User: Fold this.
Amino acid sequence: MTKFRNTFLIFAICLAAMASALGQGELRFCLRAEPKTFDPLKVEDEGSMAVRYLTGGVLVRMNRQTQALEPELAQSWKVSKDSRQITFKLRGGIAFSDGTPFSAEDVAYTVQQLMDPALHSSTGDAFRSGPGPTETKIISPTQITITFPAPVAGLDRQFDQVAILSAHSPKKEMAVLGPFMVDDYKPGASLLLKRNPNYWKSDGQGHKLPYLASIRLDIQPNRDVEMLRFKRNEIDLINALDSEYFDKLATTSPQLVHDAGASLDSEQLWFNEVAKSPLPGYKKNWFRSAVFRRAISSAINREDLSRIVFRGHAQPAVGPVSPANKFWFNAKLKPEAYAPDAALKALQAEGFRLENGTLKDKDGNAVIFSIMTNAGNKSREHMATMIQEDLQKIGIRVNVVTLDFPSLIERMTQSFDYEAILLGLTNVGLDPNDVMNVWLSSSDNHQWNPSEKAPETTWEAEIDRLMRVQASSSDAKKRKEAFDRVQEIAVEQEPFIFLVNRNALSAVSAKVQGANPVVLVPQTYWNADQLSIK
Assistant:
C-alpha cells in the first residue's frame, strides 16, 4: 500500500508541476521580414500574416491538419442556398484582450471595415464577387447575418482569414481575441507576444489556453543566422526550412526535421508590365509580349532547379496551383518542358536575332535585364544564378540583384523601378477565392501590373470574368471549370513564370511539445495555443 501511495504522490506532484508550468514558457522563432502592419484587415506580407494568425480571433478556423472547417468565436453558422448570406451564432461571455466584451456589433464593424473599397484590403477581395454594398444585420448580441451583393463561393471558409476587430476599444489593432497579444515591438529587432489573459479556450483537462506565456519573434532575414541560432537553441523552430539545411540537419538530428510533402507554395519570376514604370519603352515592349515571356519560360530548366537548388525537395511547377491542392489543380496541365532551341526560334519569329552570341530585338537593342530577389535567401539567389546561366545559352544577359526585403517591396509596390523579380507566393488556403487578390486586375497584389483601373489586356479581362464566375457559383463543378480555365490562361500568357513547388520542410526543437508540422501555412505553429515548452 505504501508503494501505491508513493507512486500516486509522485504522479500528483508531476501533475502539479505540469499545471504550474502551463503559461510559463516562451517560444522563440524568426520572422524573415518586418511586419508591415498590425491591422489584420490590411495584411498582405508574411510577417504581418504570422502576427494576425497568432493574435487574431476568427469566427471559424480551417484546421491546418485535417483541412476541415471548425467553430471558433462562432459556435455555429448557416450559409444560404445562393451563397450570398451567412448567419453566425456567436459564443457568449468572451472579451477582447483589453477586457472589452465581444458581441455581434464587433463582427458587423469588422465586416463593414473589411468591405470598404477605400481600405483596399486583400482579405476583403476574397468576398468581392460582385458590385454593391455588403449588409450586416444584428439579430441579437450573439447572432448576426451578413449579406453580400453576389454569391461568394466557399463563403464560410473565407472567414478563416478575418480577424475580428473591436468596435469600441480605443486601440483597435491592439485589442485582440486570439491566444496572444502584442506586448513589445522593437522595429528591426523583435516582436514580443504575450498570452491573452482573456482567451476563451481551454484544453480537455480544463487548463486555460494558451499554454505558453509568450512568443518572441526575432526579425532575421538571414537564413544562415537563423539556422545557427536554431542549432544553439536560441530559437525553437524554423517554419520553412531550406532544403540544404534540412539535409544537413537530417544527418545529425533527424528527429528535429519534418518533411510534410509537397507544399502549396511556389517560386516564380515575373516581369514589370506597369505602364508608368521608369523602364525604357523597348523593354516594356519585351515584357508585355506573351511570346517573350513564354520563350523565357521555355529556356529555364526547372528540373535542374528542383534537383540542384532544392536537393530534390521540390518539383517543377505546372502553373498557379500546386498538385498538392488535389481538388483545384488542373490535371490537364503539364510542367513546362526545357526547350531552349524552341525558345530561341520563337523569339526569332518575333524579330529578335542572335548576333555574336547576343540576342537583339528588331531595333538592335541587346536583350539585357536584371532579376531582383531578396538578399539572404540562398535558394532564390541560387535560382537566379541558374536562370542567368540558362538564358545566356540563348544570348540573353541577366544581371542578378539582391536587395533587403523592405527595399524590394518598395520597388515592387511603390516606385515600380525593377525589370524582373523572383519571389515566392505563399498560399494560405486551398480555395480559389483565397487568390482573388492576385488574379483580379484591380488588385494591389496583381504583381506584374497592380491596381489596373480596367483590365489592360483581353486575357486579364477574361481572368477577371472567370474568377468572378467561380466566386459567385455554389456549384463545385462550375467553379472547377472556371478556375481550370484561369490556370490554362495563366500558363498560356505566363504573367507569372511558375518555377517550382517546394516541399513543406521545417525544424522543431525537441523541447517544443505538441508540434505537428503540416503542409498548410503556418506549418509549425498552426496550433500555437496548444504548444508548450518542456
Summary: The longest strand covers residues 257-271.
